[in-house]
Amino acid sequence: MVIYECVIVGGGIAGLQAAIQLGRYGHRVLVIDSNNGRSSLCRAYHNILGWANGVSGDYLRTTGRSQAEDLGVEFLNSTVVGIVEKDCEFICTTKDGKKFSGKRLLLATGIMDRLPNFPELYPCLGISVYVCPDCDGYEVKKKRTIVIGSGNAGANMALTLTYWTEEIIYINHEKQEIDETIQSQLLTKNIPYYHEVINKVLAKESQFKGVILQNGTKLEGNHAFIAFGGNEIRSELASHLGVELHENRHILTDSRTKMTNIKYVWAAGDVAAHSEQVTIAMGEGSQAAIWIHKSLMS
């Protein structure tokens, strides 16, 4: 079995940035990626330096992988189902039973948003439908915006967006209960609230157009936010290794080095405890790689 100097689990933004940095050091690196991450869905990020008109997650992933491969980084399209530490190495087992060993391990497994089962929404993600108010609240400034969500999570998203626009509609698609205090805030902010299932999403290519509710009501709007709560925090592999997790199951790391409480195990990107931003994921990936390099040289 080949022993890599570092195995990176996850080939999203953080994993790719780390791979590029480690590749520039000349280390032998393997990235194992399931190609099923948050960045594979986003059609446009608008808050990244140099990309004022937006850049897609697919573009960043494709060009990032090419850049890393040019530096000698190896890639495997698969899913890691288990990791064990043995004799100061981390042995990663993929779903097809193959094993890969690394002297260092970087977990960049990310998270996945809980999205409703409307295929029409996917081409719109990052263009006219959003999930992160910090990333894309600016995109709906003074614009009519429909929040598609569930219970308190959706209601809180609607309230958060009042910083950007007063034209907000909240649809509690899953008809979950909302706390009385939050309902009162919706009323105070004059946010129309529909406790109703969505029957159909209206969209043309990447442009959201609105929804039709189960009761036949048609609500029009060119922008939407999704907020269902219960996003999948992909920290299960870390947990099995004994890595310390925050109460919300994000991975805790040293603020300087990005190493976890387990020696020679690092974490970066949205799976770590931080603001879920592409730019932060890039920085953490690079920072982790620098300290992985330092540890290999010591």
Would you write up a description of this structure?
This protein is an alpha/beta fold. It folds into two domains: 3-113 and 231-297, FAD/NAD(P)-binding domain, CATH 3.50.50; 119-227, 3-Layer(bba) Sandwich (FAD/NAD(P)-binding domain). The protein contains seven helices and 17 strands. It has helices spanning 13-25, 57-70, 133-136, 151-160, 180-188, 236-241, 278-297; strands spanning 3-9, 29-33, 74-77, 80-86, 89-94, 99-107, 111-112, 129-130, 145-149, 168-172, 193-194, 198-204, 207-213, 218-220, 223-227, 232-233, 265-267.
Low-confidence stretches: none
Please give the share of residues in helix. Answer: 25-40%
What is the overall silhouette?
elongated
Secondary-structure-derived class: alpha/beta
Residue share in β-strands: 25-35%
The N- and C-terminal alpha carbons lie at a distance of: 24 Å
Write down the overall mean pLDDT.
97
The CATH architecture designation of the largest domain is 3-Layer(bba) Sandwich
CATH topology of the largest domain: FAD/NAD(P)-binding domain
Largest sheet: 7 strands, mixed
**Oligomerization state of this entry?**
single chain
What is the succession of H and E elements? EHEHEEEEEEHEHEHEEEEEEHEH
- What is the level 1 CATH name of the largest domain? Alpha Beta
What radius of gyration results from the CA coordinates? 21 Å
What's the number of structural domains? 2
- The H-level CATH homologous superfamily of the largest domain, spelled out, is FAD/NAD(P)-binding domain
Tally of DSSP β-strands: 17
Helix segment tally: 7
